[in-house]
């Protein structure tokens, strides 16, 4: 390797998984310096995102008594031994809190935000790939347990990560966004941002970061017999709530997620429908850019209101299974077959999951 030009060495290393790169830091001081360099960290992440490298995507499952990382490509290939990896308890989390209330509040570039225990203000950031974690200061807003939305995103204009949190209150039959705050990693502090937005009923929960913005599922009030299904977004750099991103169809039950560099939605179009549909788009705000990827019979995949995450793999769909705690379901449309993966769980159905990309991004 010493005889290869430096740029070729760097290019080769950007294709390697985080586990290998962490190990290679011990090879010599020059490699430790290279792999720790923020410029290399960005190149490594860029290769994963822009290269649409699904092999670097994982499903993080927060379930009592521990966290698990699921390599859904290994799972889809039938490699059950390497498909599920147990992760050590994050050092920033309090061991006195019960995992039964662990809630994932956002994911971006390999970083994950987790609410630890029943207190909505007790949150920490974590990189599951490097095991680095950071406890966050408490925001000033009086966010309630059952009425708030969050999202973790990256502001490329200032090279910083931001966590957004806001209250959801009901007024005149619709949920309004109140008292939003943003946490910036570099300043390690919270501050208020602009505000009230009405005329939309949000599902709430954790937003999905894509194309520089956070996205939540919701319904736009039109005054007609039926409200319109939309994706509501917030520009992370401008810190402003934006317009609506149109959906390809009306969904009665849906989950929003990321697959490679595409935004995807998975759900039922009608309550009495006999199958689920998975749609993806790579063009922002263009309704006609949505493409249906899969139509999956209802009896092949279990999905309900509590389903929190789904992943499109190279062979099918991976989804959590709240009807059977500690179980993930993988459907292969070519074989028309469903297989199940087990993660350690104490039979508590209230676990959470999120897709994340393996990265070297640091919290320092």
TrEMBL record:
The F-box domain, residue ranges: 1-43
Q: Which residues form the signal peptide?
A: none
Which Pfam families does the record associate with it?
F-box (PF00646), FBA_1 (PF07734)
From which domain of life does this come?
Answer: Eukaryota
The record, for Gene3D superfamilies, names: 1.20.1280.50, Kelch-type beta propeller
Q: Which PANTHER family match?
A: BNACNNG10540D PROTEIN, F-BOX PROTEIN CPR30-LIKE
- Entry protein name: F-box domain-containing protein
**Organism of origin:** Populus deltoides
State the organism's lineage: Eukaryota, Viridiplantae, Streptophyta, Embryophyta, Tracheophyta
């Amino acid at each position: 390797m010493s005889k290869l030009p430096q740029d070729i060495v760097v290019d080769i290393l950007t294709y390697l998984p985080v586990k290998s790169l962490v190990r290679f830091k011990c090879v010599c001081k020059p490699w430790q310096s290279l792999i720790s360099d923020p410029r290399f960290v960005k190149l490594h992440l860029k290769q994963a995102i822009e290269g649409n490298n699904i092999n670097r995507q994982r499903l993080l499952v927060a379930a009592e008594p521990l966290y698990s990382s699921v390599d859904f490509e290994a799972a889809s290939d039938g490699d059950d031994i390497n498909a599920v990896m147990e992760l050590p308890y994050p050092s920033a989390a309090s061991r006195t809190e019960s995992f039964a209330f662990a809630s994932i509040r956002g994911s971006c570039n390999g970083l994950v935000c987790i609410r630890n225990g029943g207190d909505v203000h007790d949150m920490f950031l974590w990189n599951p790939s490097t095991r680095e974690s950071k406890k966050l200061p408490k925001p000033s807003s009086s966010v309630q347990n059952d009425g708030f939305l969050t999202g973790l995103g990256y502001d490329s204009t200032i090279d910083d990560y931001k966590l957004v949190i806001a209250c959801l209150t009901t007024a005149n039959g619709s949920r309004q966004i109140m008292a939003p705050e943003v946490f910036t990693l570099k300043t390690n502090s919270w501050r208020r941002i602009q505000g009230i937005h009405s005329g939309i009923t949000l599902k709430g929960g954790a937003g999905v970061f894509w194309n520089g913005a956070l996205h939540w599922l919701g319904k736009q009030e039109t005054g007609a017999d039926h409200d319109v299904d939309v994706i509501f977004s917030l520009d992370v750099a401008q810190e402003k709530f934006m317009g609506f991103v149109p959906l390809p169809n009306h969904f009665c039950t849906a989950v929003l997620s990321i697959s490679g560099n595409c935004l995807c939605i998975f759900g039922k179009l009608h309550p009495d429908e006999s199958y689920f549909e998975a749609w993806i788009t790579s063009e922002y705000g263009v309704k006609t850019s949505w493409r249906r990827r899969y139509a999956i019979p209802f009896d092949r995949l279990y999905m309900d209101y509590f389903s929190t995450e789904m992943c499109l793999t190279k062979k099918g769909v991976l989804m959590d299974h709240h009807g059977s705690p500690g179980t993930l379901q993988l459907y292969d449309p070519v074989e028309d077959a469903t297989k199940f993966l087990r993660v350690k769980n104490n039979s508590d159905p209230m676990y959470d999951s999120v897709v994340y990309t393996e990265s070297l991004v640091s919290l320092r």
